[in-house]
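During the no-cost extension, the postdoctoral fellow (Dr. R.K.) reprocessed legacy sequence entries with the updated structure-token encoder. One reprocessed record is reproduced below for audit purposes.
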Amino acid sequence: MTDYVRGLQHEPTLKPERPFFSSGPTAKFPGWSLDKLKTESLGRSHRSALGKARLKYAIDLSRELLGIPDDYLVGIMPASDTGAIEAAMWSMLDPARPVTVAAWESFGNVWIQDAVKQLKLPNLQVMTADYGEIPDLTTIPQRNDVVFTWNGTTSGAMIPNTDWLEPGREGITINDATSAIFAQEMDWAKLDATTYSWQKVMGSEAQHGMLILSPKAVERIESYDPAWPLPKLFRMKKGNKINAGIFAGETINTPSMLATEDYIAALEWAKSIGGRKALVERANANSKIVKDWIEATPWLRNMVADPAKQTNTGVCMVFQGEWYDSLSADEQAAVPKKIVKLLEERNIGYDFNGYRDAPPSLRIWCGSTVEQEDIKRLLPWIEWAYEKVKNG
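Re-encoded structure tokens follow.
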């Protein structure tokens, strides 16, 4: 990009006003402050009329903003996205049925380990790909249950479409959408169990997950009793029926009402700026700035080569070039750490190092709560820090 000076030898002058570029928990929405949160529910039982009403309001606002069909259930689950997706897997996957678990980054590989080592599914197809790639999903049989991650949180690789899922397919689909939802449109008709956490695109406090179930998913839960023990936090049935209370604000265990109020404030902010469409547009605009800069920076490349698979949230970039390639593996791993340290010390940008299991990289969160101007101000600083690291 011609807007940026190459090979900066001097510190840039402008600093991001909000130096928060972590991929989770992510930046709070613009204008956030504690006094924006309603506090009447704090210190009250979550089983009180007020507590349940606020939890139900969070569910209803989520449904409205995401355009979730009326006949789908939406519930608040314990233990963030991990708790929500594991509850779905442990309650819905049947050893008698063929199952495919597809992964192309760290968290998807955790769901593979659940299927292989914990559930020990005998009719299991595992599909994996290296960081920056996605396996050939079109080869998955339509009768198979499928577990997949819509957007690779630690690789920046997202599915470009859902064409590989046929309408009315026999198997159920379990979709970990935590780094995608609110920034990318969900194809609800093809999704049976979708999960996410509050601390990603909405920038809210963590430890609570969301579980969205289609009628087909509800039918599976009600008709299937797993052979393995189900921890209380995963139990979604009362007798032989779905526990409707979970999807009306009656959570399985005690939620944080402060975190709930924080999530509600973020949802109300999103609604005030134009809802889901505005959130997607903000993430697209933010990520375009970073992707264009990567293309114009000779010592960087997007971890994901195919533009159609490049995320608009946690954009991941790896290093290249003669100098970097000449370094040992340990020296290469140190480069992004040194860059991040230099900028964190100056309060320029926080927590934008690549994920610990990923190749040495930088990962800039471009989700909807981040401002374009802050991203524009961060990038010249990264160039400056790179030159400083390179030249010792």
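The longest strand covers residues 73-78. Residues 78 and 389 are 42 Å apart (CA to CA). The remaining legacy entries will be reprocessed before the final report is submitted.
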